[in-house]
Amino acid sequence: MPTSNNPPFTPEATIGPFFPFAFTEVMPGSAAVPGPGLSQRPDGQSVVLSGRILASDGIGVRNMILESWQANAHGRYRHPDDRSARPLDPSFHGFARVRTSASGQFRLETIKPGAHPCADGSATRAPHLRLTVFGSGIDRLVTFVYFDDEAVNAGDPVLASLEEPLRARLIARRCADDDGDGFTGYRLDLILRGEGETPFFDDWST
User: Fold this and answer.
1) Cα separation of 19 and 64, whole Å?
2) Per-residue pLDDT of the chain (206 residues; tens, 9 = 90+)
3) 188 φ/ψ angles, rounded to the nearest 5 degrees
4) What is the pTM (predicted TM-score) of this model?
5) What is the distance between the alpha carbons of residues 75 and 87, in angstroms, rounded to a whole number?
6) What is the DSSP string of 26-69?
């Protein structure tokens, strides 16, 4: 029984509760596989994005959830707000969710997305992945990942809004070591804070 009038200390709480099974079993871990009930592979170039999610001290962060949402190879999203004339791919759902390993590594298999106009038609978005990072103590962090072999990167309005050092932190580089099994490899580390921090965004509806 406390001998002081001050209440006992209790552990600091962050957000929660967390239900890891909902992240690791319900949603697909690869966007490159056909949609449910379909056998035909999606249209487009199969790619794999690999890297690590790092803390400010350079240590990999384990058990982070990385969600990917993207357009198909024709530049169209499987979403009712996308009413463009570009074709839908019935074998491509555009969404995947993976978890980092004990050393912070992730591997995301998907199809390289096509370029598409901005929502207001003012410019063209270069092929990119829209990534959301979740984890203990983190509500969500939103960013984009581009590909270094796309000439249309120069006209992308999100990249153009950033200074060059920040722009480079969103561009995944071809990685021959990850080529294989029909996938073209790209690599980019995501840094949560500190020196070299990945640019994160409040809104990704562009």
Assistant:
1) 13
2) 555 565 555 554 444 444 444 444 455 667 877 766 666 889 999 999 999 999 989 999 999 999 999 999 999 999 999 989 999 999 998 999 999 999 999 999 999 999 998 888 889 999 999 999 998 878 889 999 999 999 999 999 999 999 999 999 999 999 875 555 778 999 999 999 999 999 999 866 65
3) -160, 130
4) 0.82
5) 8
6) SS-SBSSSPPTT--SPPSS-EEEEEEEEE-TTSPBPTT-EEEEE
